[in-house]
Specification:
alpha/beta; globular; 14 strands; 5-stranded mixed β-sheet; 35% helix
Length: 335
């Protein structure tokens, strides 16, 4: 069976991260004729990771468009379509391929509204797979969302839960600026249940999936589950860890981050990106600038090793943030 298909043995009512994304795409395509999906293999193949499987049969090749293998060309086409009043969703297969469209994203999509004095909006959504942990070696295991969070003029989202995978797309399409959505590759098969009582999510605010009193663990995307597992292990030792899911990487929700640190007086930042010049550095700096006198210990960071991500499984696992490293960092700040 092709990746992304339904599983007969799944618990009743359960869905996957992949299917939640697909349902969000289906809802957007149904609700607005201006919305269309374009990218490499998104149509007949169903997407490299099976997210768009079956959508071309539902909506046809004009709304689900396979493109040539040219990221610069089809991202540029998405920018043009957005300028013309459409609501394109562009899928870039993996984050490393987005570098081939960086000129379009940085010099065009992010700047046109500002350079035109607000006359030209670019309501474009770009989705891409990010992260390591799947033995795809150095060229397909990047976590570059921190790079994009550096760029003014765009919004950067990193859903970590089924709920966010299902509900972030609608508000992203309504944003007048370009929105980049980074989907961690290890999450696509994660199963769970959606809460029908949650009708929408707020793009501007972080979430707090676990409250605590002794320290704050800040994470996003593929590292959120590791942060929650670490918090559970710490609870067995009598250490109460609050977990903050950033959800939005640009803009960062300073109020949620600083508010949590002021309550717990300690912070650990978990980021699959590299430590040097990374998102963890920015978060640590903001905590120090805004809550220095509330801290009882220096901010700890748990990041990927400063190497290209290895292919061999045991070496890849050693290079990435893992639960034991988060637990050790938490114990250091608490002690």
């Amino acid at each position: 069976m092709k990746a992304g298909g339904d599983h007969a043995d799944r618990p009743s009512g359960a869905t996957t991260f992949r299917e939640a994304l697909r349902d969000a795409l289906r809802e957007a395509l149904t609700a607005d004729d201006r919305v269309f999906l374009m990218g490499e293999d998104v149509g007949r193949y169903g997407g490299c990771f099976g997210v768009s499987l079956g959508l071309i049969e539902e909506f046809g090749p004009d709304r689900v468009r396979d493109t040539p293998l040219s990221e610069s060309a089809f991202v540029g086409a998405g920018i043009g379509a957005a300028l013309a009043g459409m609501r394109p969703i562009v899928e870039i297969m993996t984050v490393n391929f987005s570098l081939l469209a960086l000129d379009q994203i940085l010099n065009n999509a992010a700047t046109l509204r500002h350079m035109s004095g607000g006359q030209l909006n670019v309501p474009l959504v770009i989705r891409m797979t990010t992260g390591a942990g799947r033995q795809l070696a150095a060229q397909h295991s990047h976590s570059l969302e921190g790079w994009y969070a550096h760029i003014p003029g765009i919004r950067v989202l990193a859903p970590a839960t089924l709920q966010d995978a299902r509900l972030l797309l609608g508000p992203a399409l309504a944003d007048p600026d370009p929105v980049l959505i980074f989907e961690h590759g290890t999450l696509y098969n994660v199963e769970g249940h959606l809460d029908p009582a949650v009708p929408a999510v707020d793009l501007d605010h972080a979430a707090v999936p676990r409250e605590g009193t002794d320290l704050t663990v800040i994470a996003y995307g593929g590292c959120l589950s590791k942060a929650l597992a670490a918090a559970e292990e710490l609870a067995g030792d009598g250490i109460s860890a609050e977990v903050v899911d950033l959800r939005s990487l640009r803009p960062l929700d300073d109020a949620a981050i600083i508010g949590s640190v002021r309550r717990t007086h300690r912070a650990v930042v978990v980021d699959e990106g590299w430590r040097s010049g990374g998102l963890s550095s920015e978060i640590s700096a903001r905590i120090t600038e805004q809550a220095f006198f509330d801290l009882d210990a220096p901010v700890e960071r748990v990041c990927s090793a400063e190497v290209p991500i290895p292919y061999a499984r045991q070496m890849e696992e050693a290079a990435l943030p893992q639960v034991p490293g988060i637990v050790a960092a938490a114990r250091r700040v608490v002690s």
